[in-house]
Design brief:
By secondary structure, the protein is mainly α. 61% of the residues lie in helices and 4% in strands. The protein has 19 helices and 4 strands. Strands 1-2 form a two-stranded antiparallel ribbon. The chain is globular.
Length: 460
């Protein structure tokens, strides 16, 4: 490697055209970065049709083809860590059927498609990092990518409001109608292809709806909202008057689904993000940052205090129902990995034997809360540790830390927003499962920061 990036040369034995972008049959070139537009601008359609979890994987194919056609692929510093992680992740296939301490013994063939699905996501995430990072500013302007992710924030807020207003809305997707029932009855598959506006919980003592649209889970909704937010602020603090007017409207509207989500992790990350962005932009001498922070805080507090949201917020803080169970699950996950397979992990999750109170425990019709989530869930860090061992976890986190360290002092507004995304991702890593859209968004943020860094070095 040299400079800020290395290169992965393509094999000279397989030459290909040097055209920067694939051409349509009518010799009309597709616009640079078109797969990203297909993913994000069409996301509401993908959710309705049941393809929202798969469109990222599908679009990674044309991205990979374009990278191949470019002939020379640059990689960011520290990419060797990520490449080694991918190799380590694939080694997990060898331990898929190994019994894990504290886990239910036995062979489950369903682990194979789950492992393949997660591996496909890791590869798609790698492809988008290299794809965005290798396109130049002229080919794919940073502002365009920022606006696509800003649009996703608005879509997420809209989906959250839908979950608040129509919490029982759900319908079969197009994909659900054509797939065999043997597949659609699977809990994982159903959660991915069956559109729902909200999920329902009773841990406050009564039934409460938590918005999830247009994603599969309430925690996924919360993580995506927080990670799209810096790009929304980036896109709407500059530009035309309508963008500036839309900014406070959307932020106020998002307050309802944010509170109704009951996601304490989301609340914490939003507070952290607001503090970080205000501090970084204020240090640059941007007066609008302080004005926006103070004005926004006052407006949100007034709306919050004068609505039923305040009571719901306080009830959630007074009901930390999952803290003890999460802590015990993390301890057992780490202990199982240390005892059974500390180097390469177990390839996938495992069901826990019984419950924390007894081996014969577990979920019952009269006690849904008696069940325990599988080992390696309730936080992507614990999944990486359990599925890929401590070596894999070190490589995974090492790459993210390396990229954050490369940009945390950069005063550019894109770098500030990107580092804010990585900070939020680091917090969510401990409590939410992030291997899909959140990690995809984090990789795009890394690619934008790395691309700008490389351009600056080349200009010196």
């Amino acid at each position: 490697m040299s400079g800020t990036a290395g290169s992965l040369p393509r094999s000279p034995a397989l030459p290909g055209p040097r055209t920067p972008f694939p051409q349509a049959s009518g010799s009309r070139r597709l616009q640079p970065g078109w797969p990203l537009s297909v993913i994000f601008l069409g996301f509401p359609l993908w959710w309705v049709t049941g393809f929202s979890a798969f469109i990222f994987l599908i679009m990674s194919v044309p991205m990979a083809v374009e990278l191949w056609r470019r002939g020379k692929v640059r990689v960011p510093r520290g990419f060797a860590l990520w490449l080694l992680f991918l190799v380590w992740m694939l080694l997990g296939a060898l331990t898929l059927f190994a019994d894990a301490p504290y886990g239910v013994p036995g062979v489950e063939l369903s682990r194979i498609p789950v492992f393949a699905y997660r591996a496909a996501w890791y590869l798609a995430i790698t492809v988008v990092l290299l794809y965005v990072g290798n396109l130049t500013e002229q080919e794919l302007p940073t502002e365009r990518v920022v606006r696509l992710l800003s649009f996703m924030f608005i879509v997420t807020v809209g989906g959250g409001l839908l979950g608040v207003v129509l919490p029982h809305l759900e319908f079969p997707s197009l994909l659900e109608l054509v797939l065999p029932r043997s597949l659609t009855r699977n809990d994982l598959v159903a959660s991915l292809i069956h559109p729902k506006a909200a999920t329902h919980t009773t841990f406050l003592g009564y039934e409460e709806s938590r918005p999830i649209a247009p994603f599969a889970y309430a925690n996924s909704w919360g993580a995506n909202l927080a990670l799209f937010l810096p790009f929304f602020l980036l896109a709407h603090t500059r530009g035309g008057r309508w963008r500036r007017l839309l900014l406070p409207v959307v932020l106020v509207l998002c307050l309802w689904p944010v509170i109704y989500s009951l996601n304490r992790g989301l609340w914490g990350v939003l507070g952290l993000s607001a503090a970080y962005l205000t501090f970084r932009f204020a240090r640059k001498g941007n007066k609008w940052a302080l004005r926006l922070a103070v004005g926004g805080a006052v407006a949100l507090l007034l709306v919050f205090a004068g609505s039923p949201l305040k009571s719901l917020f306080e009830q959630r803080l007074d009901t930390p129902h999952s803290n003890d169970r999460r802590g015990q699950l993390y301890e057992v996950t780490v202990a199982s990995t240390l005892t059974g397979s500390p180097v390469v992990g177990f390839g996938s999750t495992r069901d826990l034997q019984g419950s924390f109170s007894s081996v014969g425990g577990g979920e019952r019709p009269d006690c849904k809360g008696c069940g325990v989530p599988p080992l390696g869930t309730q936080g992507s860090l614990w999944y990486v540790i359990f599925a890929h061992g401590f070596v894999g976890a070190g490589l995974f986190t090492g790459f993210l830390v390396r990229r954050f360290a490369a940009h945390w002092r950069d005063p550019d507004r894109v770098a500030i927003a990107g580092c804010c995304v990585l900070l939020g991702f680091a917090v969510f890593l401990l409590i939410y499962d992030l291997l899909d859209v959140p990690l995809y968004t984090a990789m795009i943020a890394i690619a934008l920061m790395w691309r700008r860094e490389r351009t600056e070095v080349a200009a010196r």
